């Protein structure tokens, strides 16, 4: 806002510092640490150090990159800053964000996988490039426009094909996993890639304020107390996404189990497992499922020493359960609730049962931003529209009309 009141040397030093921060974030978005000093043709002057990072860290870095580009867009509202951001150094870095991988298994894939930072980079270019100093060399402008057209072509043809081939490989791996489980039902398929994409929820446990006839031990263990039937809800309300956690049956009356596990909305009006519409429950004694009555599907029973994996997918509106490491089986569909909590319900009148909740994770990663222009269009069409809009804007300005036209 007040950039025009500052000395140009001060502004240049601040912009240079911001650019250094952007480069640092861009390095962290790559599987191996490589230099980002290069030109718009994608040539890199550095060498990789071989420091591999996990997929979870890469996706977190891409989200940070998007957030940082939002900040840069805000400071680009000043004419003085737009002129500096339109320089060769910034333009090359933004085009690098939009470019394809320069190393790895498939250089046809985009350097940045998430849509949000790529769209923000295009929008930032559209904001600052018209402010480029007219005395800038014609060669630089021609190079920028050439790179934009190359990236437009890649996003229409090369990148979609590479992404489709990658998705086919992922599908093939899923089929191999299912075949392995059919041929070796007692073994567990160790999928390191999937584990990397799961994000642990650190502050998970039971909420003492959402318990009835129960006490909480050590935040994670629910103990059935005197007073009759009771329940306890988790301290994490889930409104979207896919979450997974485990219930360990610490103490139970073997052969006369009185525990149900599952999910519930809050507040709870009816906590009878046979009639409640506020809970989706899996019964230990018989393996029956309950929501607004008993369901026809029956899962394996469980008792003291067993653990139950719960998978709640509110995007798909489903709840699944798995016993002792088995693949979770779909138990409930069309789950109609805006917010759900992990739930343990004790329907016996004998106190003493204990259930521990552990290993809560967000499965996978947050979904990428949904394309909005054109509405409901596939990702390549959204990016192509953004590139075309940028090139049209450049062709309408005097500084770029000759090159972009």
Account of the protein in words:
This protein has 405 residues and is of the alpha+beta class. 36% of the residues lie in helices and 20% in strands. It is built from nine helices and 15 strands. The strands form two sheets. Strands 1, 3, 4, 6, 11, 12, 13 and 15 form an eight-stranded antiparallel beta sheet that branches. It has a seven-stranded antiparallel beta sheet with strand order 2-5-14-7-8-9-10, with no helix packed on it. The longest helix has 46 residues, at 138-183. It is elongated. Residues 33-51 and 365-369 have low confidence and may be disordered.
Secondary structure elements and their pairing?
Blueprint: H1 8-28, H2 55-75, H3 79-85, H4 88-98, H5 115-128, H6 138-183, H7 192-197, E1 199-200, E2 206-212, E3 214-217, E4 221-224, E5 230-234, E6 242-251, E7 259-264, E8 279-283, E9 288-290, E10 294-298, E11 307-313, E12 318-323, E13 329-332, E14 341-346, E15 354-362, H8 379-395, H9 401-404
Antiparallel strand pairs: 1-15, 2-5, 3-4, 4-15, 5-14, 6-11, 6-15, 7-8, 7-14, 8-9, 9-10, 11-12, 12-13
Helix pairs in contact: 1-2, 1-4, 2-5, 4-5, 4-6, 5-8, 6-8
């Amino acid at each position: 806002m007040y950039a025009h009141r500052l000395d140009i040397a001060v502004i240049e030093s601040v912009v240079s510092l911001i650019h250094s921060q952007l480069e640092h974030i861009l390095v962290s978005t790559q599987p191996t640490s490589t230099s980002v000093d290069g030109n718009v043709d994608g040539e890199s002057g550095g060498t990789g150090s071989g420091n591999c990072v996990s997929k979870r860290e890469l996706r977190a870095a891409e989200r940070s990159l998007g957030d940082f580009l939002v900040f840069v867009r805000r400071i680009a509202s000043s004419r003085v800053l737009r002129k500096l951001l339109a320089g060769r150094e910034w333009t090359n870095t933004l085009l690098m964000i939009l470019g394809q991988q320069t190393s790895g298994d498939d250089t046809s894939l985009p350097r940045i996988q998430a849509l949000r930072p790529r769209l923000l980079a295009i929008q930032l270019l559209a904001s600052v490039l018209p402010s480029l100093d007219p005395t800038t060399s014609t060669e630089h402008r021609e190079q920028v426009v050439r790179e934009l057209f190359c990236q437009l072509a890649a996003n229409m043809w090369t990148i979609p094909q590479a992404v489709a081939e990658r998705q086919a490989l992922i599908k093939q791996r899923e089929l191999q996993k299912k075949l392995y489980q059919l041929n070796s039902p007692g073994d567990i398929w160790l999928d390191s890639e999937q584990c990397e994409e799961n994000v642990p929820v650190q502050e998970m446990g039971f909420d003492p304020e959402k318990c009835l006839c129960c006490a909480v031990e050590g935040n994670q263990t629910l103990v059935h107390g005197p007073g009759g039937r009771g329940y306890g809800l988790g301290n994490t309300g889930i409104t979207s996404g896919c979450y997974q956690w485990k219930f360990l049956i610490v103490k139970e009356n073997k052969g006369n189990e009185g525990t149900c596990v599952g999910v519930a909305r809050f507040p709870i009006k009816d906590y009878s497992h046979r009639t409640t519409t506020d809970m989706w429950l899996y019964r230990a004694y018989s393996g029956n499922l309950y929501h607004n009555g008993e369901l026809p599907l029956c899962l394996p029973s469980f008792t003291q020493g067993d653990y139950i994996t719960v998978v709640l997918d509110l995007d798909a509106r489903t709840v699944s359960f798995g016993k002792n490491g088995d693949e979770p089986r779909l138990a409930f569909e069309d789950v109609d609730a805006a917010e759900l909590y992990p739930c343990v319900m004790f329907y016996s009148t004998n106190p003493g049962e204990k259930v521990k909740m552990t290993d809560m994770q967000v499965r996978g990663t947050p979904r990428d931003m949904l394309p909005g222009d054109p509405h409901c269009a596939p990702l390549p069409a959204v990016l192509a529209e953004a590139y075309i809009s940028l090139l049209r804007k450049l062709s309408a300005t005097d500084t770029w009309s000759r090159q972009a036209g």
